[in-house]
Design a protein that fits this description.
flat, mainly beta, 8-stranded antiparallel sheet, 932 residues
Amino acid sequence: MADFGLKYYAEMRSKHFGVLWRVEIAERGYTASAEEMTFDGDDPLKITWEKRGDEFYAPIKASEASINILCTQNFHYLSLFTSDPRQFRVSVYRGGALYWRGFVTADLYSESFTAPPYTVTIKAVDGFNLLSSYLFYDLMTIGVSGRKSLFELMSRSLELMELDMPISDWLDLYADGMNESLSPLTQTYIDLERLYYVYEKPTYRDILELCLLPFAGQIFQSSGALHIRRAISLYQTSRPVTFFEIGSELPQGIIATDNKATRLVAEPRVVVVTSAGRDIMENMWSHGIYVMGESTLDIVPALRRITVDVKNKSLDNIAGRLGFFDKEMWNDPYGFLDFTESGDSLCFCGDDAHQGESIYTAGREVRQCNYPIAWEFSIKTYHRQWSWGIYSPPSENYSVSVHYGVRLVAAGAIYYLTESGAWSSAETDIVSEVKTGAEQNIKIEIAGIPKDGTWQFYFRQTLIGKINYSDSDRIGSTSGHMENATFSAMNITIDAGEVYDKGLHLESLINPANNVEMNITLPVSDIPDVPNDHLLYALYFIDADGNPTRLWHTKGRNDYDTLVGHIVQGALRYKQLPSKRLAGDVFTSAHFDMNTVLCDDKYLKVAYSVNSIELSAVEDMSNCELTEMPGLIESDQPSEGDDCIKIVEMPFTVKRIIRCLNFLLVQSADRRLFVFDVISRSLREIYRSSHPFEIFPAEEGFVREENKTFYYCDHRGTVQQVMSIYPETYQGWATYRSGYFSLLVQGYTINRVDGSRSYYLYFQQPELRSAGEESVYHRGLNYVQFYGDLVHVDYTNGCLTICTSREAGFNDSRYHQISGFTKIGAGKHIVSISDKYMLINENGSLNLYRRTSITDHIFIARIGDVATYCDHTLAEIAFAGDSPTICDLHTYAHQYIGNTEASGESVLGLFYIYGDLYIVRERAIYKYVSPN
């Protein structure tokens, strides 16, 4: 704790409500007596929490104070002008309780150059601005490697501010598997070496924002404490005790109600938080809070698009990550290897006594992918033979054969890397014939990774090495021979192409009719669950075991999503519709701060959070910006006895419904096409035709087939690309992916004995073939054939799925060419698929599988009976045969959906959009409202 002694103080009471205010100015190391000051002017004490717009993700809400005092002697307070921005600390007390604390800023000190008495204005800031002036790099106390928790990193930043305030940490977003009784900041880590790889010279403010921004967390001081929370958490029922007992002695424990909510239960030595009540002023007008008539009501436009970018760097060389030059990684019982201190080369030495023996690295886990991998390195060999007592120089231009390689140990199989870069199940060495005297540069283009498994480097001993020592008295007399090979300048890179860039960028179109764009850049976050993500991305959050964090949920809720997904959820909660913003003076004796929620049940029927405050202490007045919290008062409520609300009616017969981005496309039987927007809750016609047409889901749009012509369209129905090639064997299903149309067509084989034909289905890209791109087309000719009658085909989440009466399979755009599929066996029907899960109808049941790699999956649980419609999030599954049901993905508990208003209507589709479940019936679209 910093050593400050009280030097000046002043007291006053507010005009209208008599609130006692006291200001203390303490000096570092000061030990003399304190002097009383006199407040002066019409506005002697003003405290401001800065206005940063109404962005819920602004990580730091800084504050400052302005104090006017009377000076009766020339330049009496000039000592407050100092080059040390932390020499004088200001503490403001309200009713005897610490209200605000900061430091005098010398560059903002002013006083009149006139005869006394005159007014001196003292400016103070809370210290967050100082963090930008100090580099975080500290070799001795912090280090440059190893894992650090976000709490430890934040604590160092806050200690530097020397505010000596308790921390009210009620960040409520937890990664899967975290202990919810502890702060997530104490359980989330980053690797310092990777941090400095991405951020060469971070400041303490950079570190503070790095810890908060990915959570859309905010930090600010109020009521004598530093508060850490998400703006979206104001919707929850949990609050810190500091709001209720400002300035009083706080119990050291968590305060919570018992199961019956009849008494408070304290748990010792844990951070103080409460869930005993809401600090929501249910009727702000009856609580003595008066918004003055000069205030302004603004309508804040709704969002058009949310864009989230994550700063990162690709690992430009993963040789170190795979452990080739890491001595600790090698199992070398014979002492074949010598390592340099620099750690960038190793020498493989010959040994006659262990010819044919192999040594391996412990290995690193890698995942199946089709990304090209370039392995480049240099080899320099050595060969020498000598006789007793006769010096012989190393051989020049002597060819040395070096045997080494990579093997992939997968489940049930071992693959060996060949010199061509292909993988073979036969045990194969890479053999390099390298002549002594000069380095030889080698490059192997590796064709991806065939399976999930352990990547191991190895050497096979074929080099000679033996030294004979003389039994005579001649010292140093030996004979023998020796070979070795030195590997250096190794570089291994993975070219993930657009997959890497896409993983750092999320773009969500909310409503194209709006004009407001929200662009958020995160300093760090999770990494997308793509093959070998930990080898592609340098910096990401990890858990206590060093594994990348993936899924997060709000404490006590089942809203699992990525961190980026939660930011999008927050943006939608606040800004998916136009909202209200009230700015002006608020007159009150009540204490309120940026943890306060004000409910206007009288006029506008909305709730507000406090976005900024400019407090005039003497006037009992605060100039505030109040931001609407949509849905807190008037949320979607089903009618009594129902659990769904009708969103929009469909006064036509539905022929087909598909998803396009976050919209639903509804095709009517009378040849019209409508788009349903869940934000505006509107159903709008975008196309009609006098000819029959079909629609199919596609990459970021949809395909329309009409009069034997294919049209790729965006969600508005605007045509982006046209293809007039119509194969005779076209089987009535098409999509668009990676710049080309892909059609389901029919082929056949002929039995050479009886001439009979066997028909099958496969996917073809006609444009490639007709364009004469023979090399590309022939590569795609290794198509996977599906025999039997077509049952179902779909494209969703980047995956193409197909099911026939005899077999089924899926195509993942991250791995497969359009013609390549992974088959899953006969009698199976994929009804929902994502990066993490698959839902499959088989043997009369709907079964849940977890995808362990792009092409592999394992059975998890039976969910229910066969589903006609199914969709899922990372938290729950919705499925329907006759009636819709929800299954919790973590507990497998079932919740049956009543939807009584639509009783008797068939279900035509289930879709999760922005986390909400929409049920398409014959005559309307409904939204399910969870009772929890």
